[in-house]
Amino acid sequence: MSTNELTLSADKKKSIALKITTYVVSILLTVMILTPFYYMIREILFIKLTVVHGAGDNTQILYEPREHMITLKEFFALFSKGTWIGFRNSVIVTFISTILNIYFSALTAYAITAYEWKLRAAFEKFIIVAMMIPSTVASIGFVQMCYKFHLINNLTMLIIPALATPMTVFFMRMYLKATFSREIVESARLDGAGEFRIFNQIMLPLMKPAIATQTIFCFVASWTDEWVPRIILIDTKKDIFTLPLAGSYQGGALLMFLPPIILYIFLSKHIVEGIALGSVKA
Question: The pTM is what?
């Protein structure tokens, strides 16, 4: 057997081994990811939960197997009034905060990329440093400010911090580094287009993959946030609670699970492209 044939045979074996390894790892990861969802659905369909309130904060959850699969009436009973109120509040907060986060982060990244200004390098380093600070630590000062200015029990205070997050700005900046074309911007300026028109009508469409990717991350971060709402929203009436605070155990878990999956289905085709291009010069 010639040297070339031996080389081709070795390369073929390596390719087969790589494919087998890829499939095995993919299957294992899929099983690991889907297992919690399987148990959640199984618990909803076949197990009845009873919440027993004891003295003080002593609360117990009793698990009782159902004699039959959950009926339609029992299924709708899983969603309490508080669950739907929490769902409504979470939709409002998440929808507005995600839009504002994406828009202002993209605008900030565009300003860093498109313009030459004295403190641009320092500002970019500041963003990286801000990314390194844990969100729970960064939220301490914000919560103290809310209490100082009597801004507790206000859903607006869950939206304002999302105006521009360091991680989203950094990702948008990396994406623009790989895709930004100064010639397009200069041509638009020569045609008389203003800066905001250039950004809104030219740059935002070009950033669609990055926007789709960050929309998923921002949506999930806001949708599942429990730390800040639990500290700021302390109204005993619970009319302003978000879903992680107000949702019933089974119904709330199901509502927490579905919206991110639906959003991912609509935006998934852009995510791989957005991550790949955004990491080219990261």
Answer: 0.80
